[in-house]
Amino acid sequence: MKGELTALVLALVLSLRGTATAQQAAIVSGTVVDPIGTAVTDARVALTTADGTPVQAATTGAKGEFTFPDVPAGSYVVRVDVTGFTPFSTDAFTVDDGGRLLTLPLIVLAVEGFSTSVVVRATEAIAEEQIRVQEQQRWLGIVPNFYVSYVPNAAPLTSRQKFTLAAHETFDWTAFVGASVAAAIDQSTAAHPGFGEGTSGYAKRWAASFADNRTGDLLSHYVFASVFRQDPRYFYQGTGTTKSRLIHALASAVLARSDRGTTMPNYAQMFGNIGAAALSNVYYPHSERGASLMVSNLAISLASRAAKAVTQEFLGKRLTTHAPAGDRHP
Length: 330
Fold this sequence. Notes:
8 helices; five-stranded antiparallel beta sheet; four-stranded mixed beta sheet; 16 strands
């Protein structure tokens, strides 16, 4: 009887040991390296069930190693996430009963792909912004100073932008005031007597004054500037000796910048002035028409442009409101 009891107890103990052994958890370990085999430290490693349920989390050590203890039997996935590398997930693997050590194959991370975003702004868009700044420029806050660029490397203008800028200056309210004042002066000094006196004479003088300036602006700043592909603006130098700045200003009457940035004869101003002078023969009194009128108007236009450029170079910046911040002063 005693022997049978002893045998029964022994069998029970062996049975309990077998059950404990069968239910013992396993250890899952692995190592994480980069594409050249260098250990990846401080990588976040997660152990999840095959359906994505979190089980344990760890961080790789100095040799890229990680360990998950006490992993019960089941199907699992190890996920690795670290800045600079593409997130990695193992295939699902199975942990069996028995408490054994399961070492995963070496985990090699790929460098994370990246893209560089470069914002390329069209030249036309840059020029548009610069034009908007120029169209705020006025001498003493009144007289338009739209055709002066304080940006030495300003973007070239398209034909459409040349027209827009020319139209803006041509039909600015100050153009009408200027024509009114000029007509009043001509009337008071009896200039162009062929226009007559009184209201009719004043109206003719006003129209002639307005047409002289407006046709010259449109022809030189838009029509011929587009035909010859040159920039109609005056580019402020602002630095250097007085002599160099004076030469720069005077030369602008006969030289211009092409749309490609090279220097070329100022064809736009030349032909624009000739065209405007020729058109003046249409509306000035018959007694004043002819080559002499055209030559005088052409000479006046050329001298006026040179004088205006010199004024721009030495005084214009100080007199101009809304000039861009950071521009160069003499």
